[in-house]
Amino acid sequence: MIPQYLVDFSIDQIPHIHTDVIVIGSGIAGLFTAIKASKDSDVVMITKKTLLDSNTRYAQGGIAAVMNEKDSPAYHRQDTLIAGAGLCSVEAVNVLVHEGPDGVKDLMKLGTQFDEENGEIALTKEGAHSQRRILHAHGDATGAEIVRALSNQVSDRENIEMWDDHFVIDLITNDGECCGALVQKPDGERVYVQGKAVVLCTGGSGQLFRYTTNPIIATGDGVAMAYRAGALIKDMEFIQFHPTALYYPGAPRFLISEAVRGEGAVLRNIKGERFMDQYHTQMELAPRDVVARAIVSEMAKTNSTFVYLDISHESPDMVKHRFPTIYQFCLDYGLDLTIDWIPVAPAAHYMMGGVKTDLNGETSVKRLFACGEVSSTGVHGANRLASNSLSEAIVFGRRIVNQINQLSPLKHVPKIKVETDRKYNTQAVVERRLKLQKIMLRYVGLERTLKGLDKGLAELKRQLPVFESHLTKLEEFEFVNLLTCAMLTAEGAKVREESRGAHYREDFPERDEIVWRKHILHHRDQGIVEECIEHD
């Protein structure tokens, strides 16, 4: 059993900080929510690194929203539902496609400068979108531009207090209600921060896998702490692998945006043969899970560790103008996007599941909200549609703040004292983390089987005694959070005996609409719960 709290403490014996809203995380979800909340509330924003460290900064492709008259929310809704493979919440998708445009306008008012063509917002198309509806900035640096604009706003607002290099160990709950967080300061001192609402904006769990497009901070902290606090966790078996991450000696698994394929790039195996026509009618613009598995299949057929992405047939000027960041990054490693075929392979990219929320971003624990990748709003279903993630963060960030504004302040400090018999000092977790990543890649990756999942779970369970250790360091807390997310992902993948979206079981290769059009939920006390989906 995973304990509710990772460390021993007594609230009476540690310093208290009181505020209105606690925002944990500094990606687009955290920045935008903090800015919106600061209009009527005092905000403490906590991030374990710095304001500019987040997944958002690495988002290249853009943000999806209906911004021209040829497009419509109905088209965007249909594309999202198709990509989600039958598991999207129709209500949540309706919220996204109808409120997304206003959210984008909010970003522009806050200083985000999207690319323009002929005096109008430039729109591109990505995989599984039927229309051009992706706004981008500086060609392929959309996330960095949004973070730049929003972080400037955060820095300028007096009632947002920014805590860099602080780590939230656990959420404090009392009678099924979240009343604050236990936070470790850079010097190791712990404090209790109380607020009328806590908003998790902690991003995903990409570091579950050795090969990932995510930065090193993506350790699933929000999902794990919400799980310990008694919140429902949903759809954890659905991990999206991006089909095209750079695969080159000495280079990190740098993301080669889906927009490159949107602008005409094709995939070739190591023999130089284009192959996507054998796998899907949309070819290179098929949903990500289809493209990623097709690449793995070609790699197996040709006994190679990568395939090629080829945009050399397009205009060099267009490629350099549209993808300056990708062009320069590849050039730094001796690869010229305009003339070379770029070696790529799938890498873990995005977590569709997360902390279950309602349409206002509130979790099953009162006063606890989740926004962005850490949340499971129902928008993404079994497979996220490209560029819907940034839209989701702003749409539900606005809704969360509207809900928070209706909450009454917390009157009392809870009397909580945790004393356990923690038996061990932790061993070095660097090796443990690497081992966990290898287990996940081997047994809980793009292709799964019952035998492999059983073996993976058995190996993960051997690590559970770490919860009986004295945890003090950031990397120790991150490891137990990763271990929690790894267990939830593997358990969900074992229970779901079908293939759907980003979850593929070799032993159950077909999609089963009769039995499995439902969600798998995890609860710390109740275990695994199944939830049937509402029908259209």
TrEMBL record:
This is L-aspartate oxidase. NCBIfam families: nadB, PRK07512.1. It holds the Pfam family FAD_binding_2. Residues 433-523 form the Fumarate reductase/succinate dehydrogenase flavoprotein-like C-terminal domain. Belongs to the FAD-dependent oxidoreductase 2 family. NadB subfamily. The active site is at R288 (proton acceptor). Pathway: Cofactor biosynthesis; NAD(+) biosynthesis; iminoaspartate from L-aspartate (oxidase route): step 1/1. Residues 20-390 form the FAD-dependent oxidoreductase 2 FAD-binding domain. Catalyzes the oxidation of L-aspartate to iminoaspartate. It catalyses: L-aspartate + O2 = iminosuccinate + H2O2. The keyword Flavoprotein applies. One of its GO terms (biological process) is 'de novo' NAD+ biosynthetic process from L-aspartate. Keywords: FAD, Flavoprotein, Oxidoreductase, Pyridine nucleotide biosynthesis. Its EC number is 1.4.3.16. It comes from Chengkuizengella marina. GO terms for molecular function: L-aspartate oxidase activity; steroid dehydrogenase activity, acting on the CH-CH group of donors. The keyword Cell division does not apply. It comes from the Bacteria. The lineage of its organism: Bacteria, Bacillati, Bacillota, Bacilli, Bacillales. Its cofactor is FAD. It is found in: Cytoplasm. GO terms for cellular component: cytoplasm.
